[in-house]
Amino acid sequence: MYKPTQYFKAGMLALALTVLFVIAWECYWRSNGFAISYNDDESLWAYARKQIYQSSPARPVIIGSSRIKFDLDLATWKSISGEEPIQLSLEGTNPRPLLADLARDTSFKGTVMIGVTEMLFFQPDHNHFEIQANKRIEKYPHWSLSEQESFRINRVLESNLVFLQENTFSANSLLKRLPIESRPGVFVFPNFPLKFAYTQLNRQTYLTDALVADTAIQAGVKDVWKKLAFNPIPATKGDTLTALIQSVKADIDKIKARGGDVVFIREPSGGPFREIEKSTYPRELYWDRLLKETETIGIHFEDYPETSNYTCPEWSHLAPADAKTYTQSLISIMEQKTGWKIKK
Amino acid sequence: MVFNSYTFIAFFVILLGLHYLPLPWKFKKINLLWASYLFYALWNPPFILLLWLSTVVDFYAAKLISEEENPIKRKLLLMVSLVLNLGMLSYFKYGGFLLENFNLLMSSIGVSYQAAQPDIILPIGISFYTFVTLSYTLDIYRKKFPPEKSFLDFALFVTYFPHLVAGPIVRPENLLPQFKSPVQATKEQFMWGLFLLSLGLFMKVGIADGMVAETADFIFGLPCPVNPLDAWSAVLAFSAQIFCDFAGYSTCAIGVSLCLGITLPENFRFPYASIGFSDFWRRWHITLSTWLRDYLYIPLGGNRKGVSRTYVNLMITMLLGGLWHGASWNFVIWGGLHGIFLCLERLYKTHRKNQVTLEEASENTWSNFGLVLLTFIAINITWVFFRAHDFGKAMLMILSMFGVIPGAPKFVSTLDIYKIAFVTIGILAFHWFMRNSSLVQLAQKLKWWQMGLAWAFMLIVVILTQKSSGSFIYFQF
Fold first, then answer.
1. Domain check: are B167 and B31 in the same one?
2. Is domain A42-178+189-338 annotated with CATH 3.40.50.1110?
3. Which of A107, B35, B80, B364 has the least C-beta neighbours within 10 A?
4. Over the stretch A282-301, which tens digit does the pLDDT of each residue have?
């Protein structure tokens, strides 16, 4: 005969096993050298997006892809300007939808820094490099009070538990690392090494110390670039490119008309990656044309001795230590080129 | 607020603490009511007003109906309630759809007038609480029971948070009597409630969001045809997703409510082990199918007005049932397909000489398993219309599934195919073995440590999946 107390005993066993599992799982990842990293999800982005109305040259809104997210050191910027920039960039994403979102928001009158990675920035409208940006833009107005509270609680948990990193340690992410060959003809997004990068609460992302020190991890990331970037989609040209630049100009004009300002930034890249970028997106046809037709100032890392000599460990992003000095140099160059008052 | 969120965990712990304090029952009911409003308001506070409006109008309309002897005045009062409830539902849910079709109609007859598309936000759960309040007023009109005297009990019946946004669609006789005297969960009920909450979260977070949603969303979002294996993978993935998402919500709701000592009706009974469509609707979204039966099919005449009227009534019920799910022709087609399958099944059973008895149908024989698979495949075909954004995409998927478009590209990885196969076979097998049983019976067969292991497995999968606040699909209905 079944006794009611059985449920209680079962529940207690389940609780004990779950707690034991969580402790063991957390200890396992910590013992393997992993540190706290925040999920860079819709809520974290929305949390940053809420702050754009306090933007100024000393506290710009940053949009772009991964390079400006890794290379612009927010702590260094804050130590120089007294204020922390608002980081809205998204890895692997074309930032034009983010620019359009800022242009549409009539309450936004601030300063925007746009990171340009040509392979992403010059993709035509409605391609899959916009998915992450559009997801966040659509979610932001519907970020409910309940989700905001969950975000607050989640922040406390993520500040203390290493294994709470969906893109790295979730069941799905780990399953994707199983050595299962996919059927021919199906593109499967390659996996970055587990110790590629980590993200802070202000959305600052850094390469890990392990990656900077270990050439094997660097090679793992380079393999990903080889699969993704070394067979690039043909560059956008002709009328599509003209329309694309015109739409960027229209968005920038809207922001400028409200008293805001915009600057383009081209962060360092290196090795074979840079060579492919040069051949696929020649500077004069893309970067120079973008600046000219949008009538906007741009800072290209190759134009300044203080920013042109960095080495990216995995060809695409700066090491954290270099991000600090790069940011210091960038602020000086920006003040000089734009006339903005950034330093305290 | 959704069950799979940290906010809900905090909310529920505080609520349980208050509910089990030695306080008067009335205080606890007020507490539950405020908690329910908070649960709803944390999504979009202004829509609380609609909930209040519906509650107040139906409480007083029902009261006046019960006091009124004049049949015309009774009908008029009923009309007030129907117009308000169905009017709100029509405006918020079908306003855009009606205008869109009006515009299409105008342009098809050469009129260039285009009505502006309204920017209407759909209040979450409006279809559910509208049906809850309607059933109350209709039952009072039919003199099924006297009107509720306590406004507090009535407001709590309408607003009680576990069922508020996505069902189960409760009836007055399910819930109102439970508010009359103090209730507290027994230790057994409380633990079973927690088990059901864990199971519901496992279904939603671990399976629907964690294992299958990505493939279904990706393939159904593509504008191009796909390889047959990819198309079937996406449809099977959606089939598992919609079940685990919706049944997961209902299981959470029933579990949460049971922890408070209040029983909600069963909403799913292993539907993918159905033999035929009438069996499916006895197992899928049971509270909706019984609602449609009692307040639409039977009032239309049911099967009492001749053979052809029975089929017409069935079709009307299923078409409107489809439309209830969303303002799109695809939902109407989905309902229509279910209606056609139900009619065919009825026709077959009527003309078959050797009727299968319920006992025979409930046996786990190989022939019955074949019928289960056949039903499952037919249900999957109907899901295409339910999931696709428009008719064109649905047809593209159907053509892709049956390999009509040669050379269509492949998108789904081998790993994802394995995951979908694992989940589909798992769900089918579980439903098949459980089709004549229940979770309570299964739990009673298990030893306590076996149940504990299964429970721990579900919790660990939820934690490992790390998807904390994905919305439930049925919220949009």
1. yes
2. yes
3. A107
4. 999 999 999 999 999 999 99
Report yes or no on B414 lying in a domain: yes
Is A147 in Cβ contact with B415 (below 8 Å)?
no
Q: Pick from B194, B412, B419: which is nearest to A11 by CB?
A: B194
Name the residue range of residue B65's domain. 21-182
Beta strands in chain A (DSSP E): 61-63, 86-87, 111-115, 197-199, 205-207, 261-266, 297-300
Judged against a pLDDT cut of 80, whether residue B474 lies above it is answered with no
pLDDT by residue (tens digit) across B153-204? 999 999 999 998 887 999 999 899 999 999 889 989 999 999 999 999 999 9
Largest Cα–Cα distance of chain A, in whole Å? 84
Residues of A in contact with B43 (CB under 8 A): 144-146
Question: In terms of domains, do B329 and B456 share one?
Answer: yes
Say if residue B321 is in the same domain as residue B369: yes
The whole-model pTM stands at: 0.88
Q: Which of B163, B285, B325, B338 is catalytic?
A: B325
Please determine, for residue B468, whether its predicted confidence score (pLDDT) is greater than 70: no
Look up residue A111 and give its two tokens. Answer: 């300063």
Tell me the three state secondary structure of residue A335. Answer: helix
SS3 category, A264: strand
B214 and B152 inside one domain: no
Chain B positions touching A8 (Cβ under 8 A) are 187-188, 191
* Alpha carbon distance A329, B310 (integer Å): 80
What pLDDT is recorded for position A1?
A: 40
B457 CB-near residues (< 8 Å, 6+ apart): none
Do residues B283 and B271 touch, judged by C-beta distance below 8 A?
A: yes
Cα dist. B402→A14, B216, B381, B397, B406 in Å? 45, 17, 11, 9, 10
In a domain, B3, yes or no: no
Q: What does pLDDT average to over chain B?
A: 89
